[in-house]
Amino acid sequence: MSTATGQRTFDSLDPATGSVVGTHPVQDARAVRAAVAEAEHAARWWAGLGWAERRRRLLDYKAVVTQNLSRIAEVVHRETGKPEADATLEVILAVTHIDWAARNARRVLGPRRVRPGLVGANLAATLEYLPLGVVGVIGPWNYPVFTPMGSIAYALAAGNAVVFKPSELTPGTGVLLAELFAESVPEQPVFRTVTGLGETGAALAGDPGVKKIAFTGSTATAKRVMTACAANLTPMVAECGGKDALIVDADADVRAAADAALWGAMSNAGQTCVGVERVYVVDAVYDAFMRELTERAATIRAGEDYGPITMPAQLDVIRRHIADAVARGRAVVGGPESVRAPYVDPVIVEDVPEDSPAVREETFGPTVTVKRVADAEEALEKANAGAYGLAGTIFSGNARRAVELARRMRTGMTAINSVISFASVPSLPFGGLGDSGFGRIHGADGLREFARPKGISRQRFALPGMNLTSFARGQKELDQVVRLVTFLHGRRKR
Ligand code: NDP
Question: What positions does UniProt annotate as the active site of this protein (predicted)?
């Protein structure tokens, strides 16, 4: 589509009804370049404000977002189809992250003295984390506030400007988040949104003025973004989803585990990067767990307890995974008939082979596979077998054993006796490994992700007869240093 001025536009649609929610410009590479150039200027101004003023502005933004909670939730609800209550909770979670980033940026990133060591005894050493400049954020549609805000708030708190490209399915949410920021920071476009399709994101990733890209989406697109970043050696954070497993050990609270598995798998119609997609249950409690799970699932319905599938193309993936899982395993709840586009009712399939798409590939729908295992070791081995490594869950009655299993789970985050709880702890880093990507948002690591470490060593006084970095250095000085180093480091302890 295009307007009378020739500007190409696109519509965001309500996935439940297909009606138009909003019309937005398709910003091309030139428009992105102009936005980034303005943001470069804004970044210098924002960095110059200093820690205290940035903190004040970000806390004000937090208040503005909180005051506009229902307005934001309404746009999220219309663009994604998720219930307004879920959208509200998403915004609340984002608010806690803005708050944490604002309050902790100086502590984590500000200048500090570090020990220079004995050899550098005449030096004062300081470490600080400086802003990068302009950070490009490419966001997803499944949590269009919470997920990008995990990068945006931390990048802003670290002193950067942000140019945000929201998903083409949720542009209105992205535009509103930036508009509200301008209420707290009206002077400069420190946080702005560019709208468009994939090519707008590609232009942002390839723009030489962007000093880091924070991407959330599929592994395949992350690789394309990384290729675009390579042109300028632009670093990136990649959050690419997962195939998260929930393990139920023999001594677990089976009712709580079933409740958590169901919510973890079905809430947000399963469109959660850290949602539960696989469950491994130890033999001793398998039957009891399945009874609890199926009883609970029978009361859950798409369109009432959760919304439609936001991205129409995803329905084909969901259909394919269900068909294969049902053919090779046993459908316990629902089946192919559960897909009533744009809705999908809960589907639970047991005993699906580990090499099937429903166990190996991200489904991103309200489906879950359940498998009986001999013990928690077998569960962990199976949980760790996939290419993804984002998050996971362990239900166990033994805290020490659960933590030990959690450590060995090949993921960035693990929740114990609850699902996804790590996402609500702002001080915990969030991110994965393998096909789930790399880099971290949230917490101190999330702040450092958007900053560059700067080390400064200042000579406080000259060490007499110890000027090692001079052509005037003699053998005597070197002998002295060798003696010192041998004394400090040359003794072997057995
Ligand atoms: P994509 O990975 O294609 O999109 C994610 C973001 O990248 C969107 O903003 C998208 O813009 C943008 N984008 C697309 N192409 C490019 C490009 N060449 N250069 C730069 N940016 C680009 O995900 P989809 O929305 O298509 O979803 C596909 C699958 O990804 C899902 O089924 C799910 O499995 C997974 N996913 C995982 C998420 C997670 O939380 N980790 C979130 C969303 C999806 P635009 O929307 O305009 O195309």
Answer: 239
Contact status, residue 165 vs residue 193, Cβ threshold 8 Å: yes
Residue 208: Cβ-neighbour burial (10 angstroms; 0-12, 13-18, 19+): exposed
Instruction: Please give the full DSSP string across 113-140, using - where no structure is assigned.
Output: EE---STTTTEEEEEEEEE-SEEEEE--
Question: In angstroms, what is the span from residue 218 Cα to ligand 1's centroid?
Answer: 5
Q: What pTM was estimated for this model as a whole?
A: 0.96
| Cα–Cα dist 290/158, whole Å | 47
CA distance 91 to 111: 32
- Considering all CA atoms of the chain, what is the largest pairwise distance in Å, rounded to the nearest integer? 86
| Cross-strand pairs, 25 | 9
Cis upstream peptide for 342 (omega within 30°): yes
Give CA separation, 57 vs 49, 103, 273, 442, in Å: 10, 11, 31, 19
The owner of tokens 């969901």 is: 318
Give distance in angstroms: CA of 357 to centre of ligand 1: 20
Integer angstrom CA distances of residue 261 from 316, 345, 370 = 24, 15, 10
Contacts of 472 (CB under 8 A, 6+ apart): none
- Tokens standing for residue 124: 């004062």
User: Which amino acid, 166?
Assistant: P
Residue pair 314/367 in contact (Cβ under 8 Å)? The answer is: no
In this structure, the residues whose C-beta lies within 6 A of any atom of ligand 1 are 138-142, 147, 165, 167-169, 197-198, 201-202, 205, 216-218, 221, 224-225, 239-241, 273, 311, 314, 362, 364
Give residue 2's pLDDT.
63
pLDDT recorded at residue 64:
98
For ligand 1, mutation pick of 9, 141, 167, 430 (most atoms within 8 Å of CB): 167
Give the pLDDT score at 468: 85
How many DSSP H helices and E strands does the chain contain? 15, 20
Q: What is the pLDDT of residues 289-301, one digit of tens each?
A: 999 999 999 999 9
Domains by residue range for the chain, with CATH: 9-241+442-452 (3.40.605.10), 244-387+391-425 (3.40.309.10)
Task: Give the bridge partners for 128, in sequence order.
Answer: 454
Ligand 1 atom nearest the C-alpha of 240 is 41
* C-alpha torsion 58→69→170→393, nearest 10: 90
Distance CA 134, CA 148 (A): 15
- Which residue ranges of the chain lie beneath pLDDT 70? 1-4
